[in-house]
Write a structure and sequence with these properties.
With 245 residues, the protein is α/β, with parallel strands linked by helices. It has nine helices and seven strands, in the order E-H-E-H-E-H-E-H-H-E-H-E-H-E-H-H. It has one domain: NAD(P)-binding Rossmann-like Domain (Rossmann fold, 3-Layer(aba) Sandwich), CATH 3.40.50.720.
Length: 245
């Protein structure tokens, strides 16, 4: 029986992942800011078959509270089979360019807080010698673009951190997975015009669930983003700087 932790459990993708583990009769520990929404999700997961569902409050930028939070998780579950970090914000790039405090806040939310949490969790899980750590980052971290480079910089930081963490944790039989979604149709992206490149949260959740189970190291979700980002990364800088992306 799996013990599964999901941080940022009220996001659309995270909830869809949780539903799959509930059907497996897992023990779930959910963390998020919105406790009212978390209560609703908890009841739904129990109906879907979860063996147990624990919950706690979590705010990304309250880094000083992370050690206590991580201790609570492991004290409750004992061991953790899957630790999924799924929270984040989608900043206003124009505002970040004008307000350095906003830029730093977004880097802290999407980057620094995740690195901090990963460090605490990795140290705990290393002693287990088994388990999985998965983080939802973004294709935006592959190359800085004028439309969202603050967001991309934070996600790129986490992806680079995960590369080193994966190498370290391999020695302890811990599978580390970086999931890089492209465009996903969620409440956070409700105002964006949609196209054929947009995926549904359930589609990405299925990929996450399957890749964890198969110990896959493939990041892009859906898979076609590998080809798209390979092209974007290969464009020479003198050409890239002249286009609008």
């Amino acid at each position: 029986m799996n013990n599964v932790v999901i941080v940022g459990a009220t996001s659309a993708m995270a909830e869809a992942v949780a539903q799959r583990y509930a059907e497996d009769k897992a023990n779930l520990f959910l963390l998020a800011r919105n406790q009212e929404k978390l209560d609703i999700i908890r009841q739904d997961l129990l109906v879907r078959g979860a063996n147990s569902v624990h919950q706690a409050s979590f705010s990304a930028n309250e880094i000083e509270s992370q050690p206590q939070c991580v201790d609570q998780i492991f004290d409750t579950l004992g061991t953790v089979d899957v630790f999924l970090i799924a929270y984040g914000s989608l900043p206003d790039q124009d505002l970040c360019q004008k307000d350095v405090n906003k830029a730093v806040e977004e880097i802290n939310t999407n980057g620094v807080s995740v690195v901090s949490l990963l460090t605490l969790v990795a140290n705990k899980m290393e002693t287990q010698a088994t388990g999985n750590i998965t983080v939802i980052t973004s294709v935006a971290g592959d190359r800085g673009r004028q439309s969202n480079y603050v967001y991309g910089a934070a996600k790129g930081m986490v992806s680079t951190f995960l590369q080193g963490l994966a190498q370290r944790m391999h020695k302890s039989n811990i599978h580390v997975l970086d999931i890089k979604p492209g465009f996903v149709d969620t409440p956070m992206t409700a105002e964006f015009k949609k196209s054929a490149l947009w995926a549904q949260p359930e589609q990405v959740a299925k990929l996450i669930y399957n890749r964890i189970n198969k110990k896959s190291n493939f990041s892009y979700a859906p898979s076609f983003w590998f080809a798209i980002m390979s092209i974007i990364k290969s464009v020479p800088k003198f050409i890239f700087n002249k286009v609008s992306l």
